Amino acid sequence: MATLRDIKRRIVGVKNTQQITKAMKMVAAARLRRAQENILNARPYSKKISEVLQHLLSIEKSFNNPLFTERDVKKIAIVVVTSDRGLCGSFNMNVIRTAEEMVKGDLSGYLTSSSLQMYCVGKKGNDYFTKKDYPVVGSYPGIFSHLKFEFASGLIKELTTKYVNGEIDKVLVVYNEFKSVIQQKTTVEQLFPIKQFESQETETKQIDYIYEPDKVKIIETLLPKHLNAQMWRVLLDSYAAELGARMTAMDMATENAKELIRSLNLTYNSKRQAAITTEILEIVSGANALKES
Q1: What is the separation, in whole angstroms, between the first and last Cα of the chain?
Q2: CA 138, CA 135: separation in Å to the nearest integer?
Q3: Distance (Å, whole) CA 111 – CA 130
Q4: Which is higher by pLDDT, 1 or 228?
Q5: For the chain, what are the domain ranges?
Q6: Domain 24-249, CATH 3.40.1380.10 — does that match?
Q7: Beta strand segments in 69-169, E
Q8: How many CB atoms lie within 10 A of CB 114?
Q9: Are 80 and 96 in contact, with CB atoms under 8 Å apart?
Q10: 120 is catalytic
Q11: What band does 201 get if pLDDT is binned at 50, 70 and 90?
Q12: What pLDDT does residue 280 have?
């Protein structure tokens, strides 16, 4: 049975933990604001490139690029984006579980025939899939501490080269999409082959522009920029979702610690009162015994 000293020590320990979780929540909140700003700054650029490409592809019917070509999928690659640190609830396990279910389910044939390649961005996913001997060909731990656009462009360049050379026939990306501070959506997107842009009848499509250089060269120039922007958006989304999940998890941990401290204080006061009552009874009984003697 726990003594008063044991309960007091536990109260002190929970209070120390509460201070840590509260500090981690504040740090995550500060970083989340910057991450949200980065997403808001990146989205207009990505959106405008997509609009220009959509417009050019809708009028340049003769354009042919292997990145758009559907072919028999003999080899497939999966890019799994997780975080570098834990203490963010189910953030990492949602992505890992989704990727693992895909590999063991619809893609099990590629796994058994050694036609599956995995690229793990983030330490948690890399540690998990490496320990379980999955075919991890690209490991990128620790990139979110200093997240840079050059990493996104480098990864896209490697995947594009492999796709064009026929080393892989399809590329999927699994990550957590940032919806809000308390909501992250585990998403699977197809990176290669590039899906055709949805045609939208707008007034701008009816305008006959004069292009210099020609439309094909402009498309070929914008296409890598579009792919880089998409991967950069995925990384920014994942990082913001991680911070939102950590902020929520640390807020819940802080509230749980508060409730636990309240419960322990009640237990401590109850035991202390019982001990005081027992001591008073012993003193009174002793005094009565002396008086009778």
Answers
A1: 37
A2: 9
A3: 14
A4: 228
A5: 24-249
A6: yes
A7: 76-81, 116-121, 136-140
A8: 9
A9: yes
A10: no
A11: very low
A12: 86
